[in-house]
Amino acid sequence: MNAPIPPSDTAFPAADGASPVMAQFFEAKARQPDALIFFRMGDFYELFFEDAVRAAAAIGIVQTHRGTHAGAPIPMAGVPVHAAEAYLAKLIRAGFKVAVCEQMEDPAEARKRGGKAVVRREVVRVVTPGTLTEDGLLEARGANRLAAVAVRAGQAAVASVELSTGEVECFAVGRDALASTLAALAPSEILVPDRLFADAGLNAALKGAGGLVQPMAQALAEPAASEARLKRLYGVETLDGFGALSGAEVSALGLIAAHLETTQGGRAPALSAPRRAGEADVMAIDPATRASLEIERAQSGGRDGSLLSAIDRTVTAPGARALAARLARPLMSPEAIDARLDAIEWLLGRRQLRQRLRAELKGAGDIARALSRLALGRGGPRDLACLRDGLAVGAAVADLVEAPEDALTPLPAELARASAALRVPPELAALGAALTAGLAEDMPLMARDGGFVAAGVRPELDETRTLQGDSRQVVAALEAQLQLETGVALKVRHNAVLGYFLETSAAKADPLLRAPLNATFIHRQTMANQVRFTTVELADLDTKIARAADRALAIELETFEVWRAEAQALARPIQAAAEALAALDVAAALAEWAEEAGACRPRVDRSQVFEAEAARHPVVEAAVKRAGDPYTPNDCRLDAAGEAGARLSIVTGPNMAGKSTFLRQNALLAILAQAGCFVPARAFRLGVVDRLFSRVGAGDDLARGRSTFMAEMVETAAILTQATPRSFVILDEIGRGTATYDGLAIAWACAEALHDVNRCRALFATHYHELATLEGRLAHVSNLSLKAKEWNGDLVFLHEAGPGPADRSYGVQVAKLAGVPPAVVARARQVLDRLESESVSHADLADLPLFATTAAPARGVAEPEGPSPVETALAELDPDGMSPREAMDALYRLKGLAGR
Fold first, then answer.
1. What is d(CA 771, CA 809) in angstroms, rounded to the nearest whole number?
2. Phi and psi (nearest 5°) for 500?
């Protein structure tokens, strides 16, 4: 769990006696005491006092001093405005909150109020990990969610908002499902009422989620206050339109509303209505399983090597985020899964159409994030251009998909919904047309830079630009016109005092000083040889030219605001179009990958079977193919009911033979199938999995005082207490981290519990070959083994899974392959041969120095006669009639007798 950076122990000085500018800083700091204040001063954001010291230490900027306060120098650090995003990103990653205090007026306006007036400043936003919207602060192909957790009357809820796209989700879950729900969302920031930190289970769930945790006052989660804030956020009188929200859901959404009110400076984000889901809608995958299976991130922390990276063929950032969301939350409904598969199959069979569709989609941009920035007042002309391009691509894509290529084959429902969403309402089509006609070719980053409105859109802007850019031609034209009207040789001149004026010689000035021309020409100045005049038209022209740049920018900003407001008012259809473009990208990308990988359409139903024929691990296969080697596919057949296959398969085989790959491969097939993807296999049938568990790989948790074995046991305990008959479990080498007999006993008891109590589909890899006997003891257990052969003293891995147990683990041969010194390998062979010899006895082991650790009985001490207490107790046991718990108790009792 990541905690926010705590406030500094160093107190800020009192504001008494502060200069007017520093008084503004102290006011901003009082409003945001737990945030660093980015205080705008001209072209820099400055930090003062302890803020400067902490920021300089965190991101390596120079800390100096400026002026004094209360008789002491003021620590100061600053970053340029044009580079502020990069420094903001560093501070946010370091765990800080940053309040941006902007100049709200031009310094010239402040000077009009008096020489000592200061520029007005306000905190316009508070930047936290979950409220980022700028492209420079976000991962284009990754989501950035803000989540909130609430518990009311024993019912838990998780709310989530992706502020950069406006997507809002809400999950009503049991308390035991908080960990898997948060892990699926992978939020950057989690809001939690402070009273919930006393809940150990919630703390564990927060740690597994990985986001920065922000404590919130419990009062903010109260239902009445939360409901009021939600109504303000959405501008509605009632929440009935969002469905029957539970008290916990309202509280969680209310926490998000409170956080947005605090951080967004009064700006209303463009949010979709909350999309509700429950535990029964998606497959539950706990944090340990996600890490083990490397679904979205490899264990190195990067994207490469993950399942997502292996299958991602999307051509847009929103499509990549949508694909990641599908893999993170596989569906439980076979009907919904089939709808996704129908779209992929339809596009898979239309290669040329798919290629044209993907080519068009490349120009779609990220219109959801562009809209969010515009709504929050952080957008620019390029965001408007993104909307223009996205809407145009949407119309073209809809035409492609709806083309009557095959009238006998109806369009799959998912594609039909996407196409309908891209047929935007007339108001949005009109906005798209206005942006197409009104935006210039070259887009500046910020609206204040100007130059983004095309010619011909605003006549007054064209006139102003003409004055600004072609002032010489305008002046020359006016000069020629006045000469023609008066017959006097007039010249238009300019200086800093008079501005533009008309000048002629003293000899020719008389007609202008007499009626009727003196009514038009206003005398300004008489020189020795020249007389200077002006006219109302020239004075207006002078003012227009002088103010042309400001006027042109003001007109452009006004036009920008009109378009921005229209886009915000049409947020819903724009968001629907963005989702449709992402859905089409995902469907086309998965069809593209299915063709590349030779993947098949899975059959997903409500049975309890797992039948994979010639299946492959998508990530490993891709790596093997890059190396130019073939991949060996394998079959797997399980049935929780024990009818079409075994419920539990014991998987044995040598180290490095591929047991872990085989286990993970089958778990990933279940994820792909229920995410609505084709799977790398010749054929695949799956009864929906409600919970997926993986206990593969070893790792300690030193921060929580857990050894490798303890961490393994904690995860195993979670599996044994939570797995249901619909679950799918993979376990690798349970019990290896302790003494041999303890480990064997635990592995044996766990296997029995999975078979008899949980009754779930499970793959159980082990080097305890004694577990192979469970095939004859339990009704629905089978043995599988990964094959290897010795050839000329070397070990050859076949990577083939076949029926039956392995006869040995070949550990010494693998040690040789790993480069263990030959002398050590030779000694290991000697010890192994002696241990495996039929003639060796426990007494003979003392002949080997490795085992000669127990002293011989002292001479004269009589050997005990008759059976020992352990032997007596052992003879009384009936293993076939014992439950797993009774067997475990018996083992502990025997261990206690042996220790006497």
1. 14
2. -85, 140
The token pair at 678 is 């084709």
**What's residue 69's pLDDT?**
87
- pLDDT tens, residue by residue, 483-535: 888 888 899 888 867 888 999 998 888 888 888 888 888 998 888 889 999 99
Structure tokens at 150: 């609430």
Q: Are strands 609-615 and 781-791 parallel, antiparallel or unpaired?
A: unpaired
Cis peptide before 516 (omega within 30 of 0): yes
Phi/psi at 458 (5° precision): -125, 105
pLDDT of amino acid 856: 39
Alpha-helical runs (H) found in 496-616:
510-513, 536-569, 571-597
Largest separation between any pair of C-alpha atoms in the chain: 150
Q: Across 372-498, where does the E strand assignment appear?
A: 491-495
Predicted local confidence at residue 774, as pLDDT: 93
- List all residues 6 or more positions away from 658 whose beta carbon is below 8 Å from its beta carbon: 632, 786, 797, 799, 801
**pLDDT score at 791:** 75
Distance between CA 743 and CA 779 in Å, rounded? 23
Predicted TM-score (pTM) of the model is 0.82
Q: Which pLDDT value is given to residue 209?
A: 84
CA distance 351 to 591: 9
Question: How high is the pLDDT of residue 793?
Answer: 64
**CA distance readout (Å), 702 to 149, 233, 707:** 27, 43, 7
Q: 631: closest CA among 583, 682, 671? A: 682
| CB neighbour burial string for 285-314, b if at least 16 within 10 angstroms, e if fewer | bbbbbbbbbbbbbbeeeebebbbbbbbbbb
To 5 degrees, how large is the angle CA 15–CA 19–CA 24? Answer: 65
What's the CA gap between 367 and 109, in Å, rounded? 36
Buried b (16+ CB within 10 A) or exposed e, 821-840: eeeebeebeeeeebeeeeee
For 420, the token pair is 């309908």
The residues of the chain scoring below 70 in pLDDT are 1-11, 115, 279, 404-408, 496, 697-706, 793, 838-866, 878-882, 899-900
Q: Which residues pair with 162 in a beta bridge?
A: 167
